[in-house]
Specification:
Length: 226
Amino acid sequence: MANILIADDEERMRRLVSDFLKRDGCHVLQAKDGKEAIDVVDLNIASLDLVILDIMMPVLDGWSVLRHIRKLSQTLPVVMLTARNEDVDEAFGFELGADDYISKPFSPIVLSARVRSILRRRAEKSAPQIEQLGNILINEFKREVRIDDDAIILTPKEYELLIYFKNNKNIALSREKILNTVWGYDYFGDLRTVDTHVKKLRAKLSGDQNHIQTVRGYGYRFEVEE
């Protein structure tokens, strides 16, 4: 579960964004001004996975909060929000170390998608590149999967699906979430696509096919003993 801080002086905006992120399984912290945002960051810097900052906030603005965050961490992702659509603001934000920049008004669906993309990239950077799961060996350097030292051939989507399962071990994932993450929001297929690929992946994993458990009426869970 990702821990995300939303700092914005508009309560309606915080509530709207928070509701969408919670639907994605995130835990959300909130701050109504820059000073409160800094206090929340100081208390939670070790557990935060992403910060969403409005630029125009009372007491301290988003730039000040971003500078403070970068003194504590160079890797914590920060998404800046602004009501102004000026290139100079965007350029300044990136110079200070922002990871993304969204102008108001925006679609919460788009913001959620960008947040998922940033979190996914962060997880991929921190995830082990070679991992043993039972008798399944995944080597992301070579993009290779082996079972009992025998290489198995996966299609690109089967491989992406396996990596997504690996990065979310022991978590129940809905078919909708799997489809949106692995295939993307611009994919026009239906949920049967997920079921078809899971069936093929199970078959190719052979004796370890029981790793992928069906969560009835919901989706799938990739079970691995810790």
